[in-house]
Amino acid sequence: MSQEPSLSGSTHPLVDLARRAVEEFVRHGRLLEAPRSIPAEFQAPAAAFVTLKKHEQLRGCIGTLSPTCSNPFQEVIQNAVSACSRDPRFPPVEPQELPHLRYQVYLLKPSEPVAGLGDLDPQRYGVIVHKSGRRGVLLPALEGIETAEVQVAIACRKAGIDPAEGPELERFEVLTFQEPGQEP
Hints:
Blueprint: E1 2-3, H1 13-28, E2 47-54, E3 57-63, H2 72-85, E4 101-108, E5 112-114, E6 126-131, E7 134-138, H3 148-159, E8 168-172, E9 174-178
Parallel strand pairs: 1-9
Antiparallel strand pairs: 2-3, 2-4, 4-9, 5-8, 6-7, 6-8
């Protein structure tokens, strides 16, 4: 997993954008507009995930495996709003929760098929499992996931796939952006 360092301990623009998108949506019910000026390195479309944590516990996580917007800034806005309001595991974020949220943004590199568990490294690669129209995804470098077997088993469980069914596997790398001082 690549981690993009923040300059001078400041928050990366994509993390700041995710925060502003969530706050605008939760407080005012509006979608934040993407900035008009987007740095050159963020002008090509990219899939993204946005993770929200509250008191170090997952509070929402939504993303895309393929780009749905023309640039990562728009992708992050869409997924930040979805993470705070449409993650089926959690109720929508309430205004009083906003000061307690921490944000992580993952930009996904294109996925590639792999032959088996030996081609996976849960610290470096995220995994996509799919079988018969069902699909599960797990980001890389998640706490407590040390082996490819565990990573695939969790992704299969999320998709309702029995690992014994022999799902197809893909892996992907990410660029991770988070607030300074936040644990990955």
